Amino acid sequence: xxxxxxxxxxxxxxxxxxxxxxxxxxxxxxxxxxxxxxxxxxxxxxxxxxxxxxxxxxxxxxxxxxxxxxxxxxxxxxxxxxxxxxxxxxxxxxxxxxxxxxxxxxxxxxxxxxxxxxxxxxxxxxxxxxxxxxxxxxxxxxxxxxxxxxxxxxxxxxxxxxxxxxxxxxxxxxxxxxxxxxxxxxxxxxxxxxxxxxxxxxxxxxxxxxxxxxxxxxxxxxxxxxxxxxxxxxxxxxxxxxxxxxxxxxxxxxxxxxxxxxxxxxxxxxxxxxxxxxxxxxxxxxxxxxxxxxxxxxxxxxxxxxxxxxxxxxxxxxxxxxxxxxxxxxxxxxxxxxxxxxxxxxxxxxxxxxxxxxxxxxxxxxxxxxxxxxxxxxxxxxxxxxxxxxxxxxxxxxxxxxxxxxxxxxxxxxxxxxxxxxxxxxxxxxxxxxxxxxxxxxxxxxxxxxxxxxxxxxxxxxxxxxxx
Length: 468
Description:
The protein has 13 helices and 15 strands. By secondary structure, the chain is of the alpha+beta class. The protein folds into two domains: 112 residues, no CATH class; 322 residues, Beta-lactamase, CATH 3.40.710.10.
């Protein structure tokens, strides 16, 4: 019996040690995700951390229930760790640049990167959206049943369960019809000027910034990228076009789970684009579609290098060449420690600013008479990538371009010309040109009990298209 107990105790000790080791390896995910989310939630969006922790963070993964955090409002930092001591992570806020997770640098080094950066944003003229930020919700087209529309939008904010994993958590919705905002609803504490997290819809912003490089600096997206790391192997043939279309052939694990590549890139990498471009080929470029946040962060690295290789020049380019031209005064694109935008995931903006971006694409890249994106860029971006399934993906944009009427399309109940800038937890910025309709929806939906199709169909039911 003693021998058995000794043997059993040894096995138990090994299991406990192994479990602790796995938790140790996974801890940066819990601490990093929490610190980064809370920092941005507080200092970009002006929201409190308590609700975010309970309703938005803990439901994501059981590991997060063991994370403890603290906010430093004077330094504008958030720190989190497993059980309050294991592998702490800190995210630092920088005015105009949002929050960045510390990996290899100190807070002082990060702040030195932005020394001298202007954070002033231009004021908009006192005119109606989109050129101004004034909305007249009394000037509604006569074929819109505004009462029905508002009732439908209000339902999006009603919860039917207390289970945090199944709550809808709608934060904001705005709808534009015939290039006018006709309705908008917001959760208490959020309004039309609150910048909110877009998650992977950020990829489409990154694509537009590449388009501005093409327009203003003659960048050729069909030439090999030319990274030194790629020149000695088959990666040397990868082009920006391959990257935009997620057909680079580079290996990347997009799963969001402890120890996966996507998580390691976002929460343990100082140079996210560099992390992704170091991956080997798993397919010949241009022969296989594979959705990859790493691919978009390579595009961000290209953008960083092409605009001067420092945060000040990158921010100046993004603001002066795109955001300010569109009147996107709430736009915040967060950076990695190396200085590049986290192009895959960390763009913040308000509903009204996202609808401006939608309108740019609806109007084929023309804004207020100026061709902001190269002629043909929007058509290129909305052309289905050859190897993407069911016509679902263009150039960093989700499409509904599969076989007409097919249930395999991305959004089979919506018109074929629908396209979307979409992100994790049901961030949706939808354009339906044939219906002259656009919608922006922010939320933190963790379950599968919410549908963007149901929302859009409800909106369209409030519009009498036969009366146009």
